[in-house]
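Sample pair:
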Amino acid sequence: MRSTRFQPDPLDHALIDFGTDEKNFKPTAVGLILNESYTGCALIVHTQEVLKPNQIILLQVGRLGVMPGKVIWTKSLEDSILKVGLQFQD
């Protein structure tokens, strides 16, 4: 069942670290938040990184703390611009 989606606050964004060490969070990409829910979010990301379903990354969405996120789906919009669905893992 799909969770209720919320619109992000104006100017909120997501910081993304393609590693998995929560104690050493070093974001290398920024995502525009399309929508959020209690269980995840959808982002637009400009990156050369390859993201695949079930991949775990670290993210900080808006005012939330750093947490792992699981890639659920990706859609290429243009070269190096992806739409990504993520499920929070905390």
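The longest strand covers residues 67-78.
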